[in-house]
Amino acid sequence: MSGKDEWIWPARPTNEAEYSAMMVDLDRHLATQRLQPAQRSLNAARLVSIALKLSGTPILSADPDRGEPFGPRDLLARVADWCDATYGDRNKIDFALGYVVLPLRGTYWSLRIPLVFGTVFPFADRDLSNTGRQLTTRATGPATHNVLSGLKGVTQNYASQLTDIEVASVLRSYQRGYVALTALDELKGHELFSAARGDYGFSVEALLDGRALGKARWDNAQCAEKVLKGLLGRAGQPFPTNAAQGHDIVHLGRLVSQHFSLALPESDLRLIYCPPKVRYAQVAIDQEEAWVAHEALLGVLGHLRSIALPPGGKRLRA
């Protein structure tokens, strides 16, 4: 039994006080395992099921009939209720590949790229209530997604004012971002890939915030550096670690291009490159420059999708 699973409780609770005491103890245990609030709900239900021997009771159920109070079905449903009531929005899991940034009317927007399995067809409709088709059957046809609904914080009034050209630019940003972030998500087989995904997220946050643009540029370059080094390392190829060539995105890109017979665009690699002095605010960076580097990274990631999966890896999305 792993450390995360080493939680016990003496008996099934029969009232609110006993139930509350159990959940507080369980939540404390999950916190010691460094699980964030959004990661605790499913883990909590699983551990309650194990500790109280509720085998055979679905952890996730859409059945409105919860059975008797504090019975198996009701108890597991209460776990989710407790997590929602305790952590609110922090308990919500964002099922997204990530976010890309695009300019619209002089403002930079965050565009959500949803996590999908199989095929989804993007479209653009100014009516934000039309989010698309999430649940599909053979009769309904494939899944669809309204990309305008993915603009974080967009209002119906703003969406209604967008011109055809602006709507088309959002759709293009979605398509470009989907390919790039799918590649980033599919990278497995080297420890640097996970760190690269973290760097990407930090760079997007800093770019949108607009007050730490040096960090946006540096984290953007760090994402590219770790992806390129991870690909070389996974293939058993050496890569430079010294200060000069270790951060040289163009040089690393050439090594990847040579080994994998790719043609990574050097123009994008040069735009991504970020000298260390930017990190220490010794060079002024504006938001447009940071966004151009962000776009260049998306382009490079898109070129890398063909080699993102490790040998034998299975592609889960189109």
What does this structure look like?
The structure is a single chain. A hairpin with a 2-residue loop joins strand 1 (96-104) and strand 2. Helix content is 51%, strand content 8%. The protein is globular, with a radius of gyration of 23 Å. It has 3 domains: 3-91, no CATH class; 94-181, no CATH class; 187-318, Four Helix Bundle (Hemerythrin (Met), subunit A), CATH 1.20.120. The chain has 318 residues and is mainly alpha-helical. The strands form 2 sheets. A two-stranded antiparallel ribbon has the order 1-2. Strands 3-4 form a two-stranded parallel ribbon. Helix 7 (213-234) runs parallel beside helix 9 (249-260) and helix 10 (266-272) packs across helix 12.
Present the secondary structure layout.
Layout: H1 16-32, H2 37-51, H3 72-87, E1 96-104, E2 107-114, E3 120-123, E4 143-146, H4 156-161, H5 164-186, H6 191-209, H7 213-234, H8 243-246, H9 249-260, H10 266-272, H11 276-279, H12 287-304
CATH architectural label of the largest domain? Up-down Bundle
Helix content: 40-55%
Name given to the CATH homologous superfamily of the largest domain:
Nucleotidyltransferases  domain 2
Structural class: mainly alpha
Biggest sheet architecture: 2 strands, antiparallel
Keywords summarizing the entry:
mainly alpha; Four Helix Bundle (Hemerythrin (Met), subunit A); two-stranded antiparallel sheet; two-stranded parallel ribbon; 8% strand
